[in-house]
Design brief:
By secondary structure, this protein is of the alpha/beta class. The protein is 42% helix and 19% strand. It has one domain. The longest helix is centred in the C-terminal third of the chain and has 20 residues. The chain is globular.
C-alpha cells in the first residue's frame, strides 16, 4: 500500500480522505514544525518513512529533475480548487495513481484531465 505525505499548500482533508481509503497518509501539520517544514525536511521525512510527497510546489518537481528520486512525487497541477472538488478528483483518479506508482513511476503529474508518469 502506498504511503503519502501531503505538503502544506494542500489541505489536511486530503490526508484524511486518503486514510479513509486505506492509505497511510500524513500531512505536514502532523509534524512538530507543521507548515514551517522546509522542503528538505519534507524530503527527509518522505525518505525516512518511505512516503510519496503530494504537493503543488514546483520546487519539488525541479528538485526531482535535478536529482531524481527518491523520494517519489505526486505533483498536483490543478491550480486553485475547492477542497470538495479536489477530493472528487482524487476519488476519480486514485486507482490510476495507485497503479502508476505500483508500476514503478517515480513522479506522477496530476492535472484536471490528465495523469502523466515518469
Amino acid at each position: 500500500m502506498l504511503r503519502f505525505i501531503v505538503d502544506t499548500q494542500l489541505p489536511p482533508v486530503l490526508a484524511s480522505f486518503l486514510r479513509r481509503k486505506g492509505y497511510d497518509a500524513t500531512h505536514t501539520t502532523d509534524y512538530p514544525l507543521a507548515q514551517y517544514l522546509a522542503d528538505q525536511q519534507i524530503r527527509q521525512i518522505a525518505l525516512t518513512e518511505d512516503r510519496i510527497i503530494i504537493t503543488k510546489d514546483d520546487d519539488f518537481l525541479d528538485y526531482f529533475w535535478a536529482r531524481g528520486a527518491p523520494p517519489k512525487l505526486l505533483k498536483v497541477a490543478i491550480g486553485n480548487i475547492r477542497n470538495n472538488d479536489l477530493i472528487d478528483l482524487f476519488e476519480l483518479n486514485l486507482q490510476t495513481i495507485n497503479k502508476l506508482f505500483g508500476d514503478n513511476a517515480q513522479v506522477v503529474v496530476f492535472g484536471h484531465n490528465s495523469l502523466v508518469s515518469y
